[in-house]
Amino acid sequence: MAESSSCADYTTCDSCTDNSTYTHYCHWCSFDNACHAVGSVYGCAYGVSCYAIDSCMRQSPEPRGDLPPPAGATAGVLCLAASLLMCMSCCLLVSCKVKDAYLNLLPRGQGG
Prior knowledge:
This protein has 2 helices and 2 strands; from the N terminus they run αββα. By secondary structure, the chain is mainly α.
């Protein structure tokens, strides 16, 4: 397309941004799908990219590498560790009390 007299003459995103020059600095606005001069009161604050959305999206997931584990997993592991520690403490306490009760049943001098 030959150089236009105004940005509004461009009807596609590509033609709007490709033909933007020093005298007609244009960008494409997504709210009305039209080309506007940068700073125009009828345009938008920021123009959009003319690339198709398909070129921006991954076709398959990519591994993210060395990220920390999610907060939920960390909290779960901490809760499990605390529960195990409490259980082991209770078991030790019960075994000590049972041993003391057994030793109290024996006549004096026979307990170890």
